[in-house]
Amino acid sequence: MTFKELPRIGMGTFRLKGDDAREAVKSALSLGYRHIDTAQMYDNEAAVGDGITSSGIPRRDIFLTTKVWFDNLRASDLINSLKQSTERLKTDHVDLALIHWPSPDDEVPMSEYLTALRDAQREGLTEHIGISNFTCAQMDQARDILKDTPILTNQVEVHPFLANRKVVDHAHKLGITVTGYMPLAVGKVMQDETLQRIGRDHNASPAQIAIAWIASRGIVPIPSSTRPEHQKANLEALDIRLSPEEIAAIAKLDRNERIADTDFAPAWD
Question: Which positions are catalytic?
């Protein structure tokens, strides 16, 4: 296997099911996306796999991410669940396998599931490994456990209303790329006056400005959309260059508004 780099933007598939997921993936790939992000918990891996195979884009050209759900974190369960994920995705490996959430209340020791994830990598089930929704302390712990094995990314919620600076800065300090999910704050960015104003200056939508701001911070955004025109606009947002003043204005929108805050989440930074 030749190791691929993580593309600068990805197509998220959270909440997309069946034909919607299949067609959204196929459309995104036709428009130029090369990173598709899914998860066991999304219950759409088979549809995502169909979208990839029907797109006509060679599998070797696609960076495919999936995530292991927390009920599969025991060592034997983790490997088996990833094998099942690859079968549903109609491939023999994924490019990136993430731990979707740290084990709630540390029911499964981090050393057990991260070592199992590394074993899955050694077995060829995934090229890269990473984490998702890990705090600064948990990133440190993961680094201590995995030692020289690279952690490609920590995928966390990032948008103008949740800058998540502490985690982003700490990840970057550790050499871990940050992938930002929910970059459009489930559509809330469209109503923000600051993003609208900056968007007018760039002949762009507030959504495009939000994505451009995330990318300007060295974060990989993974917006989700079923509409080709929105997918195309999200991709084109990478070409927008924001001024330091615009970046500073957007930074002031941070209000620690967390959308994905579940009862099993860690104690956030």
Answer: 42
Report the C-alpha gap between 19 and 25 in whole angstroms.
10
User: For residue 258, is it within any domain?
Assistant: no
Whether 164 is covered by a domain: the verdict is: yes
Q: Report d(CA 155, CA 152) in Å as an integer.
A: 10
Q: How many domains does the chain have?
A: 1
Q: How far does CA 43 lie from the centroid of its chain?
A: 16
The whole domain housing 78 covers 11-184+219-224
Predicted TM-score of the model (pTM) = 0.96
Beta bridge partners of 65: 37, 96
- Averages of pLDDT over each 10 residues, the chain, 269 residues: 81 97 98 98 98 97 98 96 98 98 97 98 97 98 97 98 98 98 98 98 98 98 97 98 98 97 94
Q: Which of 54, 67, 57 is nearest to 19 (CA)?
A: 54
Quick check: is 101 in a domain? yes
- The CATH number assigned to the domain holding 141 equals 3.20.20.100
